[in-house]
From TrEMBL:
Gene expressing this chain: scpB
Alphabetically ordered keywords of this record: Cell cycle, Cell division, Chromosome partition, Cytoplasm
The keyword Nucleus is annotated on this UniProt entry: no
NCBIfam families the UniProt entry points to: SMC-Scp complex subunit ScpB (TIGR00281)
Identification of the protein by name: SMC-Scp complex subunit ScpB
Organism: Arthrobacter hankyongi
Xref: PANTHER family: SEGREGATION AND CONDENSATION PROTEIN B
Length: 206
């Protein structure tokens, strides 16, 4: 069956979803795996060149698959309709397992990108993702997600003017650093050269 056609971004050709492994449903699944916030069927449709009606049908099919409605064997994650959009989450039943892995079983060191992002949050909290990106000059979505998963940062409400989610460090962050409060944070420059002038960005973005 031919897939719906759509418009691509400037200079981009819309891929032929039917020619991809798994077709449109697999393409939709791939997008759902990387989004940080719930996406509406319209947004997903625009990204894939599919109609919202087609997207909703595929979303329901994926939801049924993850819930094991045919096989009676549910997956460890689920597709939820939340806040007007769709996003994949690990099932709440597995929260103890996931938490144990993230906080105790994951021994890999943080990357330089993660350390720099964590430093920006620590010294400028509460801070929005857009401001972190502006200071670092790169997209920080995946890094912020990693820091959230490891329990080093947490959401701290929203910006009163823009509505952007704000982030702060956690008690676990202080514990890992071996300090009692934020006033004991060490000088930044010796540890992360290049971020010693954070104050220059104070008025850049909210």
């Amino acid at each position: 069956m031919a897939e719906d056609s759509g418009t691509a971004g400037p200079g981009e050709a819309m891929p032929d979803l039917a020619s991809l492994p798994g077709g449109a449903k697999a393409a939709l699944e791939a997008v759902l795996m990387v989004i940080d916030e719930p996406a509406t069927d319209v947004e997903l449709g625009e990204a894939l060149g599919l109609s919202p009606v087609r997207v909703r049908m595929l979303l329901r099919e994926l939801q049924d698959e993850y819930d094991g409605r045919r096989t009676q064997v549910p997956r460890g994650f689920e597709l939820r309709s939340i806040a007007g959009g769709w996003r994949i989450f690990s099932r709440s039943e597995f929260a103890p397992v996931v938490s144990r892995f993230v906080r105790e079983g994951q021994t890999a060191r943080l990357t330089q990108a993660a350390l720099e992002t964590l430093a920006v949050i620590a010294y400028r909290q509460p801070v929005a993702r857009a401001r972190i990106s502006a200071i670092r000059g790169v997209n920080v979505d995946s890094v912020v997600r990693t820091l959230l998963q490891r329990g080093l940062i947490a959401e701290a409400g929203t910006h009163p003017e823009t509505g952007a989610v704000l982030y702060r460090t956690t008690a676990y962050f202080l514990e890992r650093l071996g300090i009692g409060n934020l006033s004991e944070l060490p000088e930044l420059a010796p540890h992360l050269p290049g971020l010693e002038h954070l104050g220059d960005f104070d008025d850049l973005v909210p």
